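Quick one: structure for this chain?
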Amino acid sequence: APRSAAEGALDRKLAALNAPASGMRLDVHLRDPAIVDTITPLLVDVATSHPFAAKNLPAEIKAARARCNALSRDPLEPLKGRLRKSPALDTAYARKRLRYKPLLHAIDKEKKAGLRAGPSPKMTPLIVSTTGHVVGFGPVKDMLERAHLRRLRAQPPRDDGKSLEFLTVQFVRHLKARLISSVQRGLAKSMLS
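Got it. Here's what it folds into:
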């Protein structure tokens, strides 16, 4: 299949980097066309993580024991810091950030050299677990909420009485649920094949 000029340009930039960039694949480049100069564009890479996979299980068990110990001391005390997180998801998120560090460095160099206009993009790994958790959804959610709310405001008034804010929250919840169900369907297919 023929590659676009933009893909070819990205390939040349990646080839110019010192660090190997194998396995890099951006899934989404989000930018808000209505406010392009003030809102940071997002480079989104979506990945899945299965916390109960053999390689992740020892860290997840250790974290579960730490949570149980904390809750046994004071069940009403909310969990803090790392006790609220999944080690598998945190590791996947950190790996994605490290993987794209050379690309972001190259973009920063272009910006400083005056070759790139507007704000530099921000890398946003979006890790969806097979257990229904999502890490890194905040920046994506914020940008999509703004765009959806702007689209709703451009439409004529609604007859059903639902507020625009309610419809926007509903849209984001639906999107997140679709992300999670897509990952879980993929896991089910891989287990059945």
